[in-house]
Amino acid sequence: MANIRELHAAAWLGEIDTIYKVIEQDPRILEEVDAVPFVNTPLHTAASAGHLEFSIEIMRLKPSFGGFSPIHLALKNNQHNLVRRLVEINKDLVRVKGRGGVTPLHFLCQSGDDNENITLLIDLLEACPDSIEDVNMKNETALHISLINGNLRAFQILVGWVRSIVREDAYSLERSILNWKDSDGNTILHIATLNANQQAVDLLMKRVKINAKNLENRTALDLAEALALPTIIKTLLKAKAKRGVSIDDDSNRENKLKFNSTLTLLFILMNHTRMQVSEQQRNAVMVVATFVVTALYHTVLNPPVGKSVLSSNVFGSITSLNFLTLCFGATMISGLMPTTKLSIFVLIPLGLFLVSYLVSATLISPLDY
After folding, report:
1. How far is residue 265 CA from its own chain's centroid?
2. Count of CB atoms situated within 10 Å of the CB of 254
3. Structure pTM?
C-alpha cells in the first residue's frame, strides 16, 4: 500500500522518475493496481492534475489504465492538450464510455460552445470518425446531446460532419444518424422542436424524416402545436409535416411486407442480387453488359442509307429482339449499381438511351408512322 500511495503522490506532482523507483522496489505494482476493479489509478490522478508527460509514460507502461475514465477526468479539468495526446496514443479512447455511457465526444457536446471545446470536438471527430455513431445509456447520439444542452454550434458542426462523411455506406449512415431515435423514440427533429430551436429545425428540413413518431405516437408537428410554436409549425407544415394520428405506420409496414406489387418484388430481387454479387463479379458483369448495350446502339447509329431495306416483319423482329436485349443489359447495369446518390447520374442517361434507341429505330423503319 505504501508503494501505491507513493505512486499516486508522484502522479499528482507529475514526477516521472518516481514511477521507476517504485517499480524497482515492486516490479508488479502496476499489475496490482490494474487488478483491482474500479480503482482510482495513477493515470486518473495524473489526468486530473493535467500532467501530460506523466500520463503518457503511464499509458505506455500500462495501456489498460486508459480503459475507462482518465480521459473523462482530463476533459472535466479542461486538460485539452492532455486529451489530444492520449488520443494520439490510442484513437479508440474517443469511444470510451464513462458514467451513463457518455463518451468524450458526448462530454464536449454538453460542455459549452467556446472555441476550445469546439476545436477539440473537431479534433476528436477527425481522430475517430466512427465515434459519431456512439450512444449513451439513453440511446442519445452526440447530436441529441448537443441540442438538449443548447449547444447549437456543436450541433451544426455534427450535422455538417455527418453530411460530409466519405465512405462506402455514407448515405445510409447519414440517414441513420440524422433519424436516430433515443430511448423515448425522439429524433433530433423532436428534440429541436421540444427545445424551440428554430435554427436547428431549419437546418434539418429536407434532411430528416419529417413525420417520424416517438413512443407516444407524436410527430414534431404534434409537439410544436402542443408547445404553441407558430414559427416552427409554419416551417414543418411547409415541409408537408403531418400529425401522428394521421400516419398509420403499422398499415404501411404490413402492406410493405405483403409484397403486393410486382415493382416491390422486382426491387427486392434486385437488392438480393446486389448483396450476393462480389465486387469482382460486379465489375465483370458491368463490363459485359456495357459492351452489349454499346454494340446494340451502334447497329442503330450506323444503319443502311435511308430507310431499312428489310421487310417490315423482319425489321420488326430484329428491332424487337435487339430492344429486349438492350433492356436486359440496362436492367443488369441498374441492378448492379451501388445504392448511392451517384447512381442517378448513370440511371437517368441509361433511360434516355433506351428512348433514343426507339427513336432511331423508328426513323429507319420501312413503315411510315
Report:
1. 28
2. 10
3. 0.61
Residue 269's CB is within 10 A of a number of other CB atoms, namely 11
Closest CA to 300 of 347, 351, 355, 358: 358
Question: pLDDT tens digits for 239-298?
Answer: 999 999 988 765 555 655 555 566 666 666 666 665 555 666 667 666 656 766 676 566
| Cα–Cα dist 207/233, whole Å | 17
Which tens digit of pLDDT belongs to each residue from 316-340? 888 888 888 878 777 777 766 665 5
For 268, phi and psi rounded to 5 degrees? -65, -45
Cα–Cα distances (Å) from 186 to 144, 157, 212, 220, 250, in that order, read 9, 21, 8, 9, 18
Helix axes of 52-61 and 2-13: crossing angle, nearest 10 degrees: 140
What secondary structure letter does DSSP report for 66?
A: G
Look at phi and psi of residue 137 and say left if phi exceeds 0, alpha if psi is from -120 to 50, else beta.
Answer: alpha
Class of the CATH-defined domain 1-89 = mainly alpha
List own/partner pairs for 193-198 with CB under 8 A and 24 or more apart. 193/220, 193/223, 193/224, 193/227, 193/229, 193/232, 193/236, 194/223, 194/227, 195/147, 195/148, 195/150, 196/227, 196/229, 196/232, 197/147, 197/150, 197/152, 198/231, 198/232, 198/235
Nearest to 348 by CA among 326, 330, 324: 330
Q: Which residue has the cell 516521472?
A: 16
